[in-house]
Each structure stands twice: as structure tokens, then as C-alpha cells.
Amino acid sequence: MAPDDVRVDPDWRVAGERIETLLDASSAGGTVARERAEALVREVVDLYGAGLERIVALVDPRTLDALASDELVASLLLVNGLHPHDVSTRVRTALDSVRPYLGSHGGDVDLLDISPDGVVHLRLTGSCKTCPSSSVTLELAVKDAVLAAAPETTEIVVVADEPASSPNLISADSLLSRVHSAPLPAAAPMHGTWIGVPELADLMPGEVGGFAVGALPMLVCRIDDELFAYRDRCPSCTESLAGAVLARRAGGAVGDAVLRCPICGAHYDIRGAGRSLDDPTEHLDPLPVLIRDGVLSVAVPVTEVAG
């Protein structure tokens, strides 16, 4: 089987939590049982770490780079201090991985600097800096990618771009303050999670499909080779967008894609992060779509994961 065909169980991302749960369960046998379980885990980790260090010493730099490009292998290299790339290179690579999604919505992200104490300073540009859902995009796509690639970073800060020229535009700083001040359920470990939806690949160019992920109904559009996912709700009439189709606006360029609400007739720019063409204060709610562990996945707010 070729390396590109290897599928890894995405549950490896929460392996640490499962190990901790098993250690907690061992505590039922008393303090000695817990200490023995922890010692066993350390022995296994040290053994595999020593083996991984030997592998790293034996392979050539190009092979090591290829190994480090795999998320699971990269995480093991990081845990054992064997990753071949410094934090700046890893952060830039992580940002490159989400640029196709940001670019599909007319936006981008710039790495400004990484402070000695591990604070990453970013700047959202284009549509991302004014999109009413860029807070979700930042939390579920950009920050997730950076923290996965460089877990030693201590904080990710979005630096304000030049002031917006329109009073209707909302700054990234304002959006982020809303995200971080919003209360989350007590059991919620983060602002959202990635859920594999491989059936998105079945959409044909120009097709609009409805999907349900957990408790979240969403609308997904394919334009050429790009997928665009939005919450299935028209902000103008608050109704479902079921039955909506893509069309080119009058005088629009090739590739121009407008979604028309079948209920109220409101028009939304699919490539432009779902901005309304009728009311500049209204916006569809975009959801990041990326390939994770080889599977098309959608970032879903944590409050809507359970259905």
C-alpha cells in the first residue's frame, strides 16, 4: 500500500484523553495501582520514543520531511523533541494548509511574528477581516491548524488591520472579543470540532446540497473544484435555504456564483464568504471545509455537534 493510501483513525487526536481516563480508572485500585499504571505508560512512551529517535537518525532529510508532513507522525516527533522544523516553519506550513479555504472566500492570513514567549501574531486580510463569521473561521480553522502544528505556542493573537472604511464592517478584534466572552457549555473543551463528511465529494459542479451534521443543518455548494459550506439559514427571512440554486449575477464574470433564497429572494455571494448582495449588514454563516486525515471535514460549533 502506498503511503498516500494509508488511512489513520482520526481518534488518535484524543488518545491522550483516553490514556488519562484509563489512568484515572486505575486509581480505583488505590495510590499504588495508579503509580504503577503511570510508570507503565512512561516505560512504553520512552521505548517508542527511543525507537523513533533511532529511525530519525537513520533516514535522510527528505524522508524525514515527508514523515513530518503526516499529522500523526508529526505529533509523535513533537512529543519526543525530534521534529526537523522550527516553530516558525511549522506555523507557516499550518497557515498554508488553510489558505485554500480562506482564499476561496476572498481572504487570507499573514504571520506577523512569533514572540520569544510563544505568542503568535496573525493578521486576517480580505473578506476574512470583515466577515461576521470570521471569528468561527479563526477558532476552528486557523487556530486549530497552528496549535496542531506548534503546540508549544502559548497564545494566538489577531492584530488589527487598517481601519475599515465602512461603518457596516466589523473588525476582527471585535469579532474575537465576542467569541471569547461568549459562555460555553461546561463540558465543551473548545469552540468547535471537525467532523468528517466524505459525501460532500459527491456534489457535482454547480450543485447545491443539504446536509445535517449533528444538530447543524448546512448547505454546501460546489463551484468547479471548490466546496463552500454555510449554515442552512437565510439571514434575511430566517428560513431554510432548501431549494436554492446557484446562478451568475447579471453582468457577472465566469465563475461568479450567487445563491438566491427560494423564500424571500435575497442574494448571497458564495465566493465572497456569503455576503448579501442586497443588504451589506447581512451575511450567510460560513463553515470551514478542509481535508483532515484524508477525509473531507467540516468545522462545526461545539454546541451543535450532538444531534
From TrEMBL:
Residue ranges annotated as transmembrane are none
* GO molecular function (one): iron ion binding
Keyword Signal annotated? no
Write out the GO biological process terms.
iron-sulfur cluster assembly
Q: Where is the Rieske domain?
A: 195-298
Which terms are listed as keywords in the entry? 2Fe-2S, Iron, Iron-sulfur, Metal-binding
What InterPro entries would the database entry show?
Answer: FSCA_dom_sf, NIF_FeS_clus_asmbl_NifU_C, Rieske_2Fe-2S, Rieske_2Fe-2S_sf
What the protein does comes down to: May be involved in the formation or repair of [Fe-S] clusters present in iron-sulfur proteins.
> What is the recorded name of this protein?
Rieske 2Fe-2S domain-containing protein
Q: What organism is recorded for this protein?
A: Antrihabitans cavernicola
Species lineage: Bacteria, Bacillati, Actinomycetota, Actinomycetes, Mycobacteriales
